[in-house]
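4.2 Preliminary Data

To establish feasibility before requesting continued support, the project team ran the inverse folding procedure on a target of 116 residues. The structure was first converted into the token representation described in Section 3, and no sequence information of any kind was made available to the design step. The complete token record follows.
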């Protein structure tokens, strides 16, 4: 689902600036610039210009690289990954129970339960 506020901001940027139509980096830098308040806006301007010109790695590239490295090297994964996967079996069990209750099937024995 698209965040409506962000969608409106992106649409406005695309309508008002031709460079935003051709460059995700420029679009992101423009939106971040507009979201910042002074004096932070002025302080961040050199960084935002580097982002807009593609002189820094994109967020997507860094994120994609992190995901791939963590896939290949589990020791690089953070605590949230570990916690999420520890809960995975609990969530699977909860989903099976919910499905069984809805369908009337006993998921533990995989037999049809008597419906009263």
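Position-by-position output of the design step:
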């Amino acid at each position: 689902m698209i965040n409506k506020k962000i969608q409106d901001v992106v649409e406005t940027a695309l309508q008002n600036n031709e460079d935003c139509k051709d460059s995700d980096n420029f679009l992101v830098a423009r939106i971040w610039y507009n979201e910042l308040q002074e004096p932070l806006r002025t302080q961040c301007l050199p960084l935002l210009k580097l982002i807009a010109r593609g002189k820094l790695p994109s967020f997507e590239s860094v994120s994609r690289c992190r995901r791939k490295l963590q896939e290949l090297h589990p020791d690089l994964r953070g605590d949230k990954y570990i916690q999420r996967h520890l809960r995975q079996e609990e969530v699977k069990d909860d989903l099976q129970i919910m499905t069984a209750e809805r369908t009337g099937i006993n998921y533990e024995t995989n037999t049809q339960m008597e419906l009263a």
